[in-house]
Amino acid sequence: MFIKKLNEKNKAINVAIPLTKGTEKTRIKRRSILNEYGLPVATRTEPFSQQCYVEWQIGYDVVTSEPEKLARTTLPDKTFIGANGKNKALYELSEYIYYFYKWGVVSKDELEGVRKFLHTIDSTQLLDVNRSYVIERSHPIPQKLFDIDFEFTQVKYPLLVHKFRSFEIITEIKITEKQYAVGVQPMLYFCFPVTELKTDVPLLGRVAEIKENAEFIIDASNITVFLETLKIFGILSRNHKADILSIIDVILT
Hints:
- By secondary structure, this protein is of the alpha+beta class.
- It has one domain (2-130, 158-252).
- It contains 5 helices and 17 strands.
- A hairpin with a 2-residue loop joins strand 10 (141-145) and strand 11.
- The chain is globular, with a radius of gyration of 20 Å.
- The protein starts with a strand and ends with a helix.
């Protein structure tokens, strides 16, 4: 995602959200109830409905050594050393909070409150090592399917959903296996209905135009959601916690 417009006068940020293709960061999905598994929507052929929502794997940094990625942030000089040893710049979540802190909407006390909260968290309770949230596999059961012998096993992945009070915005934390290493990784998704998006022509009842982007408006009315998301990121793992504490230092500098 990228910031389409910074409006310091009205203290608002317009974030561009692609509607026509699923990326590694966002997808348009559909579900009828909150705990239902969302299904991707082919927005060029399927009209938007009240059941459609944006699933955004929101980030908080970008590696400075990769020019293409660094170009996505408006704050390439606001950097820190990540828990993985890489030099990183503020991006997306941290980028938004940086501006709202500089504009006087987010206070120093609020950021210090997040820092204080994270310092109280016992590292053994972070989600990637917490034994209450492990991936469960059932005992294999022999089955024959189309005259082929299999062993049937069910795998259950933990899912934590946080609702932001009066907002129609939620975060989903999915705990899955690491793709290229041993262990698990909590993945955070920021989800909200498509009715939260701003477009020239209302979305409901129509399909998306070619390469169409919508805008999600961040302002004083919802920035607390992003501040709370920053806090939630800090409980995912030791590395996430260290990164968020470093980001708070950069913002307050």
